[in-house]
Amino acid sequence: MSLNFQLLIATEESHFLLRLFKCSILTLDSIKDCIAQSFADIFCGKSNIDFFDQRHDGVLPCALQDIIETVGDQCQQQNKDCFSQTKDCNDKRDLRAVFNVLDTMLKDSLERLKTMREGISWAHIGLCGRTFEGSYTQHVAIIRALCLEGKLGASLWLRKKMIWNVVIPDVLTHNYFLNGLCKTGELKKANWLVSEMLYCGPSPNCATYNTLMKGYCLINNVDRALNVFSAMVNSGVMPNRVSCNILVHALCKKGLLEDARKLLKEILDENCDEGRSNLITSTILMDGHFKNGDTMQALAFWDEMLQRGTQMDVISYNVIIYGFCSSRDVTVSYRYLSEMFKSGLIPDVFTYNTLISALCKEGRIDGACYIYSVMSRMGVAPDHISYKMLIQGLCIQGHVIEANEFHVSMLENLIVPEPLIWNSIIDGYGRSGDIQNALSIRDQMVAFGVLPNVDTNFKT
DNA sequence: GTAGGGTTAG
């Protein structure tokens, strides 16, 4: 039997000519398979995105791809569902049934095509010389969503299109751009964006400067962060408590505690009217002193907060618990843990991991396992850090069977272990002479898609 | 609830 199929699909403004078949087809099964594959390629695959990539010669491929993906995710999922449902059609001999399947697919695909066209033409603003479509609110919403997803190329491209159409996104939207750029370490672009804001608007606000300062701190460039701070003050924007905290934290991380205190004093004396009663600033300074090995000074901050009647939170307790754990005084940490419960605060995964870490380092693996059981009873889910410390701690002490129980629990909780964890178990079995299990775990590692590395071996 | 601040391993 020879069939020539040509389907013409009409949309509101344009026609898509889809050549599905121009070949000899022998059975209805192959008709179904071919049609399903063709539709899957056209509507579920990347063919639409490739089309634009080729036409515009890579000028905006990533930007467009991101926009299309963002706009089209939902309808793509609907279409996939349609195909999965058609799999159950087994009436191979019934020509009518095959065409019913075709009808369903075509109807659904036309709907999808319509949605996709709307999405693409929306994303295509300005590219084909069209007028500026869509409302300001819509554009701003999609820009913010793209920024939060880290699709900055696409969002900056939309910003450019908006500006071409003399519509300037507001300062909040610009802060979203800036935040995205800073989080991905693109400080040059971030700096450029702030210059653009100063030059053409909207005027940067306190959050704009704070975001840029934080960006520089993230790449460990505190000097530039301090320059941004000066620029903010010089341009007449008042720093707030967040500005203080960003800089104080960055200076503490560098061990410049005295500089941090001086800066804080200057800022607070000049600008802030909140006094010194800020939990976050005190927590940062307390943490800085603990990490500098100055327990006395750290405790002075804690006591000062108590005297002021500051309501502590989970993070401030985590910092003091970590402080005593790192000075090898887990007993004192337990005291603060108990105080935490008494004051109605619920310890989180940070609290428990801090204790597990300290106990493992001291070789008190039973205590670490006990903390694990407490966190489980309290409904706090262990994360990859909890498992990593317990598994490594148990393997070091030769308890590979118990370590593997945690490993299994990790997999059951859908946490894929990193190579180091697999290697610890493999090595643990090797050291205990259990070659069969060592090899079995290595096979499992590969099956989970984790590539063995140079440390994936074992000594017997 | 449109942006921006503090804690765990290595």
Description:
It is a single chain. With 460 residues, the chain is mainly alpha-helical. Among the domains are: 2-123, no CATH class; 312-370, no CATH class; 382-460. It is built from 22 helices and two strands. It has helices at residues 28-44, 47-55, 61-86, 95-123, 136-148, 152-164, 171-183, 187-200, 206-218, 222-234, 241-253, 257-270, 279-291, 295-308, 314-326, 330-342, 349-361, 365-377, 384-396, 400-412, 419-431, 435-447; strands at 2-10, 15-24. It has a two-stranded antiparallel ribbon. β1 (2-10) and β2 (15-24) form a beta hairpin. α15 runs antiparallel to α16, α18 runs antiparallel to α19 (384-396) and α20 runs antiparallel to α21 (419-431). The structure holds one DNA strand of 10 nucleotides.
**Overall shape:** globular
Structural class determined from secondary elements? mainly alpha
Radius of gyration: 30 Å
Q: Roughly how much helix do the residues carry, as a percent range?
A: 55-70%
Biggest sheet statistics:
2 strands, antiparallel
Q: Would you count the extended β strands for me?
A: 2
Q: Which strand order spans the largest sheet, edge to edge or round the barrel? A: 1-2
- Tally of helical segments: 22
The end-to-end span amounts to 66 Å
Bin the strand percentage: under 5%
N-to-C SSE string, H for helix and E for strand: EEHHHHHHHHHHHHHHHHHHHHHH
**What is the mean predicted local confidence, pLDDT?**
73
Low-pLDDT runs: 1-108, 110-131
GO molecular function: mRNA binding
Organism: Camellia sinensis var. sinensis
InterPro entries: PPR_rpt, TPR-like_helical_dom_sf
Keywords: Repeat
